[in-house]
Amino acid sequence: MKRSLYALLSSKSIARRILLPALLLVGLALSQEALPRLSGQLSPWPPPGWPEGKAAEIRLGIGAPQAPSEVLAKAAVGADGRFTLALPGGVAARAYATPDSALQLPEGCDFRPSVSPAGARALLAHLLVYAGGEATPRAFLSLRAYQPGGSPNTGTGASTLLVWADQPASVKGSGRCGEAEKYRILLEVKLEAGWNFVVIRVPQGPGAVVQVRADPKPEGDFLLYPLRP
């Protein structure tokens, strides 16, 4: 398991332990008219604790959120908190994985997801916020408010990421995951070719079943959540 997932989880609550992209993704395709740019408003802006006089930059990174292995795109943030990010039309082959591997299932699952078509390739990306001159991101972005954990992959409620697919693909499966404590999940990921919105969702409460349902394109400002070491 990659350090970008389980090693970042600090809470013992099931809700924080199971909010992993693989469990909760639903592909919401960006309209072709919206490509290759993604525009938005950061909120709050500037966020509490932002270094005075420091400009901000949005980066689309892959790998561990605290230290991305590669940055696919970046854009300056205006003084009013607005940005426009040009999304790449393609991604280097070395960054691809099969959709189920890209979605990073946790340890201890008692099922193997089905992928269709078998040759599909995909990757997961994070929208990250940097202060000028700093090498480590200060925050990640979400289109929906939720109770954050230590990374974009932990917390309760719902969050939004981006996923790239080289062709239309689906990943489906259901069962139980977890090492010390099992929890039920329902995985149903539908991706279009190109960039997709990814909604991460988990219900709260003991015994809750993680479910995935199709949603319209999320609306609203991009909310900032601090990244914890």
TrEMBL record:
Domain of life: Bacteria
Name of the featured protein: Uncharacterized protein
